[in-house]
Amino acid sequence: MNRPEHEDMSASGQVRVLLADDDPRLLDSLSGLLALHGYEVDTARGGVPAVAMLEQTHYDLLLLDLAMPGMDGHEVLQVMNERGVDTMTVVISGNASIDGIAQALRAGAYDYLRKPYLPEELLARVNNAARKKRLEDRHRAMQARLNRSERLHRLLVNHSPDIVYILDDQGRFSFLNATVGKLLGYRPEELLQVPLLDIMEDDQRERGRYFLEQARQPDDQVRSIQVALKPKFPGRSRRHFELVIWPVHDGEVPPADDMRHRIYGTARDITERLEAEAFISFQAYHDLLTRLPNRALFKDRLSIAITQAAREDRQLAVMFIDLDRFKVINDSLGHTMGDRLLQAVSQRLLKCVRKGDTLSRFGGDEFTLLLPEVRDPESVAQVAEKILASIRSPFSLSGHEIFIRASIGVALFPDAGTHLDALIKNADIAMYRVKNTGRDGYQVFTADMAGTTQRLRLEQDMHRALANQEFDVVYQAQIDSAIGEMVGVEALVRWNHPRLGRLEPSEFIGIAEDSRLIAELDRSTLRKSVRELAKARQEGGRGLRLSVNISPLMVARDDFVDTVLEVLRQEGFPAQLLELEITENLLISDRQDVIAKLQRLNEIGVNIAIDDFGTGYSSLSYLQKLPIHTLKIDRSFTRQVKACDDGACIVNAIVAMAQGLRMNIVVEGVETMLQLDYLRALGCGVVQGFLYGQPDSLERLWQRGAAPEALAASASHGG
Hints:
Elements: H1 3-11, E1 16-20, H2 24-36, E2 40-44, H3 47-56, E3 61-65, H4 73-83, E4 88-93, H5 98-106, E5 111-114, H6 119-158, E6 163-168, E7 173-176, H7 179-184, H8 188-191, H9 205-215, E8 223-229, E9 239-247, E10 261-269, H10 271-285, H11 295-312, E11 315-324, H12 326-333, H13 335-350, E12 358-363, E13 366-374, H14 377-392, E14 395-397, E15 400-402, E16 405-413, H15 420-436, E17 441-444, H16 454-468, E18 471-480, E19 485-497, E20 501-503, H17 509-514, H18 518-538, E21 545-549, H19 552-556, H20 560-571, E22 578-583, H21 592-603, E23 607-613, H22 620-625, E24 630-633, H23 635-638, H24 649-660, E25 664-667, H25 673-682, E26 686-687, H26 698-703, H27 708-714
Parallel strand pairs: 1-2, 1-3, 3-4, 4-5, 16-17, 19-21, 21-22, 22-23, 23-24, 24-25, 25-26
Antiparallel strand pairs: 6-7, 6-10, 8-9, 9-10, 11-13, 11-16, 12-13, 14-15, 18-19, 18-26, 19-20
Helix pairs in contact: 3-4, 12-13, 18-20, 20-21
């Protein structure tokens, strides 16, 4: 017996042994001997109890006597085989026949020991059998773990969201997981022996070929590439993948089917990621409403175009396109309709430009156009005229026929500047020159236009002016034409600019509208004029009616009605003496919120007047269903009155209509006695204009009186 070996066996873990024999004395001696050497021993007297114990308890080793009454050792071995009892068996018997030994070994016995035997011999046989059993158990456990690991890996590979593949040394597929079917429509077996290059999109193959060549280099570098792979079925959208590959060295993966595996890789579908990145990039450089390039992308392309034009010594042009009166339409018809109009305008503009030009939405209702190659100023003029003609055609949107115009400023490189900020600024300056001289046209920037930057400074100054109360209110008298008495006043705003002096409304109202400061200016004018009229009444002044212009932006505010009510309450001014003048464009949209606001004001006694009636989108329907009290005839119609027999058809028609609707009439722009006499004959109740002097403070207005004959003598615009 090799004691150290037995000690090693015991150290590796206790071995459980079952002794099966019909001799009780032998069982006692054997169990004592084995227990002495560290074995855990149970005994069974005969084959039947041995089988029962083997089924109930797991034994590492069975020492089995072949010659037993009832059920001999051969029958025990047969039952063990039938019932799958996994126990290492050493047969011990006095039967030394060759047939008996062979039969036992065929039945699964590990070893055979003939009686009588030496204890050392028995212990050596037992120890060897136990050692082999332990090795077999370990092997089976390891194999089971390997099988579980293989199943787990197969599960992970086949359920991976990525395509997992192996390529041979020719770049052909030798393995693919099932994910290839979900992403590209192929069954894995369809692609076996198919080159990876064959399922790449045609425009990707050259990149893919270079990539695979690099992957075969003798290094351990992991490589990746983004490539588009062909789906099996035509018509499916293009799919993009990130291919990652690892080189596999000889010996790392055993060959299968005589195939040498060279590359292991994965293909991850990144289509959605690329689409998301493209959308984010699109958002960063495009206007989502019109889908045009935005300001950032326009500047980027302009910068590149300037560099190229300077290198090739040629001209380029920047156009600044601003839609005229867009804010009126936007405020009248609503922002949704304004957005649709911007989309329609952008589509028309795109039809006016060449493929290499860049049209962008610069912001709001402003567009910029880059013409990177310009032959001469005349070619630029042709593009501008084409754009203007395109925009002049009416837009039909949701049953509305909308007319709009544009003002275009042009800056030529290098005459108007050599860097992008100068070109954009000077194109903007030229555009404002068009607006200041009538709109609906274009203008090329020249050096003498630089003073237009004052508009930007005025906008910046206006924020400070509102805080510092630099705006004053003056009043224009409204005269009863029959008796020549002042019955009301219209509040007009003036700006006492600390640097430029006193500014007229024509010099800053447009800026206030564009910068959306007009609502704050309206509130200030309303409060100040109501306060001054209320103070005049308290000091014994007459109960004059006060007319105040209100912009569409002011009316659109949710707090519009509450603001008016609060001003009247705080200043103690009768609602019946307040008349708010709005433009008819505000009513064309038939917006229910606007109608509701006007109804609320009408219920408390505030009068509503339509200012400059006839110059916008006139409609008889809103005159009948809305609480309109007064129509103000614009001065442009009053100028048509030249003699009492001239007819002045438009004035006649408006007066007749107002009288039929039982509305008040106020005629603006009365400058001559001839006009006054004509309007008196028509029955116009109230007139106002320079015939009665320039707008002034309330105090001076009363001091100079209201008789037209006396005023006409001193008025600079007298007839």
